[in-house]
From TrEMBL:
The chain crosses the membrane at residues 12-34. One of its GO terms (molecular function) is glucan endo-1,3-beta-D-glucosidase activity. Belongs to the glycosyl hydrolase 17 family. It catalyses: Hydrolysis of (1->3)-beta-D-glucosidic linkages in (1->3)-beta-D-glucans. Keywords: Glycosidase, Hydrolase, Membrane, Signal, Transmembrane, Transmembrane helix. InterPro entries: GH (IPR017853), Glyco_hydro_17 (IPR000490), Glyco_hydro_17_plant (IPR044965). GO terms for biological process: carbohydrate metabolic process. The keyword Transmembrane applies. Its EC number is 3.2.1.39. Coiled coil: none annotated. This is glucan endo-1,3-beta-D-glucosidase.
Length: 413
């Protein structure tokens, strides 16, 4: 499931003008406050649907929003071609059904030569996920094949001179025996013989441990016991606790230097009657609060000085995904390009003119008024110290006081 936000460190002039009659919001920015890369939050671009926009249209959407990182669940040639020369970091995926074949170094080499090498560097492929949630697949053979497949893919990258541009890993979920309190985080005992070689590989190749983390499921299963504010990231929050539990579990096995990144997180806007909490209001709150925390470049309590990399799930609602209704309703956008709900995605282009008009649907079916975003000419330079003071002080407070975001970066599945 996946978009990413980066707010620049220099803000000299910024304000919102609300017109109560036309409900048009005009946002002005100083160019020097926004660096060339804006977004920390990544987005998962899933394609399990039969009514999605073309890859070319998705490329235009992402570039208009200045999303700089995204993740896909295959190596769709149409997507790889469409994303050429965009500067978007792209994570591609070896599907679970192909992991066994990747154990053969020759097959792995052929896979990289077919799915990565022809598109690189025009298409900025920076990561390869070998499988997805393999360790919770209930397939012992698939689980035991994973590390040999990782080794073969990495060796193929080395052979082709691509290893310095790509990290190789896999996304994980529900792999812990204990997760609360986070300091007691530990892996399931039966997984030790699988996890240790995996961590050895990550440490040797300096690749991240990816996790798919969904506070939503904890709330859905125990709404009477789990605070909604806690899972919606309003206060000290469950997402960071989940990440820190994995950090402790990894350190407990002797690999504390491995970075943990969130490959998926999100909240469904709609669900079945028994899916408590799957509402537009909660989805908007979760993703909005996640974006605010990304703006602040937050780390977790265990690693406060290391910004947590997060990929949001998902860019689009996917109508062909199996399972409960919620599985088809994690998207920020409908397939026709309208927002499912508005978290303030602002498209800021390099031109000085109005850059994006978008609409979002309220829960009551009404259409929200359109948002226009403009940019001011360059502002005078300020010192780096002043620039930092502005960001950590009034700038952040001003952003949090508005319901509309100012800049962001989102990653989709």
């Amino acid at each position: 499931m996946a978009v990413s936000i980066l707010l620049g460190s220099r803000i000299v002039s910024m304000f919102l003008l609300f017109n109560l009659f036309s409900s048009v919001v005009v946002v002005f920015f100083c160019r020097v406050w926004l660096p060339s890369t804006w977004f920390f939050l990544g987005s998962n671009y899933g394609q399990v649907a039969n009514n999605l926009p073309s890859p070319e249209q998705v490329r235009l959407l992402l570039t208009s929003l200045r999303i700089t990182k995204t993740r896909i669940y295959d190596t769709n040639p149409g997507v790889l071609t469409a994303f050429a020369n965009t500067g978007i970091d792209l994570i591609v995926t070896v599907p679970n059904e192909a992991v066994g074949m990747m154990m053969d170094p020759r097959q792995a080499l052929q896979w990289v030569m077919t799915n990565v090498q022809p598109y690189f560097p025009a298409t900025k492929i920076t990561g390869i996920s070998v499988g997805n949630e393999v360790y919770t697949s209930d397939d012992p053979t698939l689980m035991s094949n994973l590390v040999p497949a990782l080794l073969s893919i990495h060796s193929a990258l080395v052979q082709l001179g691509l290893d310095s541009y790509n990290h190789v890993s896999t996304a994980n979920s529900a792999v812990l025996e204990n997760s609360y309190p986070p300091s007691m985080g530990s892996f399931k005992p039966e997984m030790a013989n699988l996890v240790v070689p995996f961590l050895q590989f990550l440490a040797a190749t300096k690749s991240p441990f990816w996790i798919n983390a969904y506070p939503y499921f904890a709330y859905k299963d125990s709404p009477a016991k789990v605070s909604l504010d806690y899972v919606l990231l309003r206060y000290d929050n469950m997402l960071y606790a989940q990440v820190d539990a994995v950090i402790f579990a990894i350190a407990r096995l002797g690999y504390g230097g491995v970075e943990v990144r969130v490959s998926e997180t999100g909240w469904p806007s709609k669900g079945d009657p028994n899916e408590v909490g799957a509402t537009v209001e909660n989805a908007r709150a979760y993703n909005r609060n996640l974006l605010l925390r990304q703006i602040r470049s937050e780390g977790t309590p265990v690693r406060p000085n290391q910004r947590l990399e997060v990929y949001l799930f998902a860019l689009f609602n996917e109508d062909m995904k199996p399972g409960p209704t919620s599985e088809r309703n994690y998207g920020l956008y409908q397939p026709d390009g309208t927002m499912v709900y508005n978290v303030g995605l602002a498209a800021l282009t390099s031109s000085a003119s109005v850059s994006l008009t978008s609409s979002a649907t309220r829960e009551n079916g009404e259409t929200m008024n359109r948002i226009h975003v403009m940019r001011l000419p360059p502002c005078p330079n300020t010192t780096k110290k002043k620039q930092q003071r502005q960001y950590t002080g009034g700038g952040t407070k001003a952003i949090e006081s508005f319901a509309t975001w100012i800049a962001l970066r989102v990653i989709i599945r």
